[in-house]
């Protein structure tokens, strides 16, 4: 019985890695268009059973973006006309 639970745990870790990899690709490819945002939203809803992984990864990504915008304030500012 213990061996079976270990295998299931290994599978869940593997699926979490696949999910995070997919989420990374989606975050890198998202743009500020309605279609892009709806696509990411739909994907999140379809994968809601993994909500804790999605939220954790999303927060990590937001913190990374916030740090980058603080490190490069000119990149965060809209271009002047």
TrEMBL record:
Per UniProt, residues of the CID domain are: 15-81
Q: What is the lineage of its organism?
A: Eukaryota, Metazoa, Chordata, Craniata, Vertebrata
Query: Per its record, how is this protein called by name?
Result: CID domain-containing protein
Source domain of life: Eukaryota
Q: Which residues form the signal peptide?
A: none
SUPFAM superfamilies from the xrefs?
A: ENTH/VHS domain
Looking up PANTHER family in the UniProt record yields: CYCLIN-DEPENDENT KINASE INHIBITOR-RELATED PROTEIN, REGULATION OF NUCLEAR PRE-MRNA DOMAIN-CONTAINING PROTEIN 2
- Check the record and name the Gene3D superfamilies matching this protein: 1.25.40.90
Q: Which GO terms describe its biological process?
A: mRNA 3'-end processing
Do you know which InterPro entries this protein is assigned to? CID_dom (IPR006569), ENTH_VHS (IPR008942)
What GO MF annotations does this protein's record show? RNA polymerase II complex binding
